[in-house]
Each structure stands twice: as C-alpha cells, then as structure tokens.
Design brief:
Blueprint: E1 6-9, H1 16-25, E2 28-31, H2 33-52, H3 76-87, E3 91-94, H4 97-111, H5 120-131, E4 134-136, E5 139-141, H6 150-160, E6 165-168, E7 171-174, H7 175-181, H8 193-198, H9 202-232, H10 242-246, H11 251-264, H12 282-285, H13 287-309, E8 317-319, E9 324-326, H14 334-362, H15 364-367, H16 384-400, H17 422-451, H18 462-472, H19 483-494
Parallel strand pairs: 1-2
Antiparallel strand pairs: 3-5, 4-6, 6-7, 8-9
Helix pairs in contact: 1-4, 1-9, 3-6, 4-5, 4-9, 9-11, 9-13, 9-14, 9-17, 11-13, 13-14, 14-16, 14-17, 16-17, 17-19
Length: about 500
Amino acid sequence: MNQPTLIQMNGDQLRIEDVALIAREFVHIELTSEALENVRRSRAMVEEMVQQQKVVYGITTGFGKFSDVMIQGEDVSKLQENLIMSHACGMGDPYPVEVVRAMMALRINALAKGYSGIREETLLQLVELCNRGVHPVIPQQGSLGASGDLAPLAHMVLVMLGKGEAYVNGQQMSGSEALKAVGLAPIRLQAKEGLALINGTQAMTAQLCLALYDSRVVLESAELIASMTIEALRGIPKAFDPQLHLVRPHPGQQESARRLLAHLSGSQRTSQQGELRVQDPYSLRCLPQVHGATRDTLEYVWTTVSRECNSVTDNPILFTETGDVISGGNFHGQPMAFAADFLAIAMAELANISERRTERLVNPQLSGLPGFLTENGGLHSGFMITQYVAASIVSENKVLCHPASVDSIPSSANQEDHVSMGTTAARKLRTVISNVTKVLAIEYLAAAQAIDFGTGDLGAGTSKAYAELRRVIPRLHEDREMHPDLVKAEELIKKGTLVIV
C-alpha cells in the first residue's frame, strides 16, 4: 500500500493511522476549503463579541479563577500572549519529536472544525510549522489533563510567537531562529486565539494515538512469538479449536484463536491431546482468552481515541449557526485517562503471560529441554538471566499500571477542582508498551533457541518468524553478550516484522 504524501484535514475524518503517518513519516497536512470557511465564520463571531464588549470567558475576561476579571479592549491581544508565556512552565525531559508532531496534527484538526474562533492565518502558521519540520521543545511534565493540556500546548504555541525553543533538522535553537530557518515570521495572537490553541486534550491524545498504533503491532507479534513457544514445548493446538470459542463468543478471543491456528498451520512440532499430556498449562492453553481480552480492550480504546481525534476540546465553544457561546468542560481528559489506564493494564498482561512462557522454556523441569537452553550447562549459563530480566520488567509494569485516573488534585484556587491526570496515564502507557516489547523479545529469542533442539517443520507463520530472527541472530552455542541479541529481537518486533497475518 502506497503511503500518502498529503493528509487533508476538515476536523471530522482524521484517523489514528493518519496521526502516526504525520508523526513518524513527516507526511504533510492540508486544510480543506470547507474547514477554512468554518474557521472564518467562527472568527467573525469573536470579532463581533470583542467589538460589542460582551462578557465571554477567555475573550474579554481572565482565565480560571480570574474569569470574573474584565479585560479592556486594548488589552485583549496582550491577554492571549500573557496566557501562553505564563502557561509555558512545563518541566522534565522534552517529548520525542513524534509526540510533538502528533500533538500539532491533532490540535490543527480540532481547530479546523471551526468552533474555536481562531484566525485562519494563525491556524495556517501551525500547519506550516508541522509541514516545514519545526518541532517545539515541549517538556513532558506539567499537565493535569483538565482545562486541557495547558502547559505542553503552551510550549508548542511559544514557537509560533518566535519564543521558546524548537528543533529544526535535529538542531535545537530558539523559536525565533527556528522560524527564520524555514522562512516564517512570528505571529501576534488576537482575541481568543491563545486559549483556542492550548485548551484541549492533544498531549494525552497524541501519546494515545501512537501507543495504540504500537499496541496493535505488539499484540500481533505476541501471538506469533507465543506460537513459536507452543512448538518449542510441543503444545496442543486443540485448545484453539473454533467450536470451543464459539460457545464463549468474545470477538477478541475468537480472533486470537484463529490467528494462533493460522500461525501453527502445517506444523510438525505440536502434539495431540493425550499424546504427551492431556492439557497444556494456562500460559499456553489460555492464550486466546488472555490475548483476546487484550484485543477487545484495544478495540474499545481505539474507538474512544478515534472519537477524540475529531472532537472539539477547548472552551468556550462557538456555535455559528445559533450564535451561542457556551462555556463547558470538553477539555476534561477523563475519557482519555480511563482509556490510557485500561490499555496499560491490558498490554501489561501480554508481558505477564510471556514471562511465564519464557520460564517454561528455560526451566528443564517444565520443558524437557536442556536447562536454560544451553548445550553445556554449568560452564555456560545460557538463557538463565534473560528470565530474570523479563521478571524485572514485568514487575516494573505492575507499578506503572496503577491507574493515574483515580487521582485528582484541585487547581486554580479550587475553580478547577477535579482533574483527570490523563496525560500522566498516557505517558505511563507508552512506557508499559515499550516494556512489553522487551519482554516479548526475550521470549522470541528463547523460543527460537528451544526450537533448535527439536526437529520437524514449523508452522506457516512460525517458520517465517524463526527465519527472520535467525537472519540477524545466530543460535547460541556458548555464552556471549546477550544484550545486543535482545535489542535486535526487540527491533524486529517494533518494526512490525512479525505482523504477517
């Protein structure tokens, strides 16, 4: 499938896959004529309200607890610039460029819906930053996930004003230097624009989009790697029989069972019920039930985040058809917070069960194979410590899976007295997925080593997975530094090499 070179945005049709392409492949953005017309209409509403000196939150008033402070007409523009500078107070390491680009793309799409009152030229400035590869330096810490991702998005907007810092072609420089490097000039924000740019859920949603995209790759890889372990241990595929899963018709469970059977099709390495044992341990037999539950969770979160990608999440919201300006709470990140916490738990379980399969591979009392998968145990330790590493990472994930969304700390003098912590949840989720990939890489390497002790053809899918690994990592005959091998196996998973069905 050919990769698009341009993604058109109108605020309604942005897909998670599109966000990943913009973030990682630097695909360009173009606004539709319909979107630009909607932007102009909502801007006309703002101009009229300023002219008539109407009392409207964030346009002619201060923010948060200062919402009852009126702003005079000559200070309306200064109010927006002050908003950005005061809110750009994030801390910690900067977000990776891919997260920054996803954040920019999502904010552009939300503003393109035409409910936010931003000027056309201001929105196009943000589009040009993304298209020309100007990536604001955005610290990762500082968002409560309600009133939007204020601090992260403020750092994004600073560069539009010629302030802050940005990366251009991998070089970090001041915001003014970054704009000059790509032929752009700073803008001066007008009424409502600062608020429109930073009051939204795009920092958490950006991370969720990339996490979801990666989660699909990790899940498909996990099932193929598990299939290799089944062959290494001469497992019983009968547990994946369709009729078994028809009587417990969870869609994810049925799909996982189908894929496991497809991966093992034609294999001479499996066994029948009663041939070697009556039934397998849970880490093999219950794969469809465990992986299937993760599949169903992933689909739920995918739907929820897809909806958020095309939502208006700032405040107040302008309705051009009715003339209403409504102050509400669409910036509250609770839906994303729950989604991120739920997905972290579901993805962590892939690592939990993978580590148990790795233990079965390396433990001679459970596998019937040489201890720790080494030909000369004692002199060589083989895969002994790789299981330790998997256990350590699994334990780390258990800490990270404590839900961030159960916490709330009031802010802005108790005006903003309940927050989502959704951005924290999304940051933790990305770490969990990275950890899961590492645990699966350990099983992948161990399963291939265990397969080398047996004979017979591998399955339709597992033969490909085995060949891909052995193309870059040779069999372990005597102890060697394991870290480089594990990193190579991890990269194969991350690149989607094992997504073959």
